[in-house]
Amino acid sequence: MAARISTQKRKLIWAVIICLLVIAVIILSLQFKINGQITSSGRTRKYLIYVPESYDPDSPTPLVISIHGFVQWPAHQQSMTGWNQLADEDGFLVVYPRGTGFPLRWNTRPVSNGSGSKEQDLQFFSDLLDHLEQTYNIDPERVYVNGMSNGGGMSDLLACELSDRIAAIGGVAGAYLYPRDDCNPRRPVPVIAFHGQDDQIVPYQGGTSSRNEQFMFTTVEDWAASWATNNSCADTPEKTKITENITRLDYLDCKENALVVFYKVGDAGHTWPGGEKLPVWIAGYTNQEINASALMWEFFKDYPYR
């Protein structure tokens, strides 16, 4: 009798373990979900795309590309930023590309590493645009890019190297590592960016990251000023106090009206303003006084590619 009960207990334990494993697989598949892939530079590259119900294949439609950060992934970028809700409201498509390597990342520096090179990532975005334009009715004059952290750095690189296909860019807590002397876009590129002054991962005042000392960052305001120079804007930005914690810097009088707008978020860490909160002990405080995605979209709408 005791042996029979013991056997039943073992079967029950194994059944519970199997159920937990199945649940774990389902959760992971939802977290890391991907619904598209292409071949680029001989490699399979993946992405997650959101198509709102209002999409009309007979009407040219804007495309927003939102790029995850280092150690992050497409579905996380989707949930953190709220771009899908904006797409439902205004009828544009959103694609969340996936980086390479482990952990996932983007190659934004001139040097190559084990996960590939910046040339391969640039080719991936060019190939991805080709693929999406063949699959959907994408308006080529309204393609916008934004990203978080390492994804913000990728957005910066795309503006430098693919300005003939990108109408405007946005960055949040951007890890901007591409040398400014190497950034020579073919045209002025409108830029909107956000950065927390308490960011310890990509320090606002520049220097090394608290997570990886091999990366040396310039001050974020100097990065914004470099884009103002590229766009032939006025040297000194106009400053506007938005809230007690937030100041907006506007570089005006730019060539082709390609403005550079920068939000200094005094109490924020390495986070997306108005977005899904990250653990404070990892990333710092998430400011909810503004919504970075909504402000980006309002900015992007003023800039079809010319």
Descriptive report:
Helices cover 33% and strands 22% of the residues. It has 306 residues and is an alpha/beta fold. It has 2 domains: 1-31; 38-300, Alpha/Beta hydrolase fold, catalytic domain (Rossmann fold). A 10-stranded mixed sheet has the order 1-2-4-3-5-6-7-12-11-10, with helices on both faces. The longest helix is centred in the N-terminal third of the chain and has 30 residues, at 2-31. The radius of gyration is 21 Å and the shape is globular. 40% of the residues are buried.
Large-scale geometry:
globular
**Overall number of structural domains:** 2
- Second rung of CATH, namely the architecture of the largest domain: 3-Layer(aba) Sandwich
Strand order of the largest sheet: 1-2-4-3-5-6-7-12-11-10
Beta-strand percentage?
15-25%
Radius of gyration: 21 Å
Protein structure class: alpha/beta
Low-pLDDT stretches: 14-31
Total count of helical runs of at least 4 residues: 8
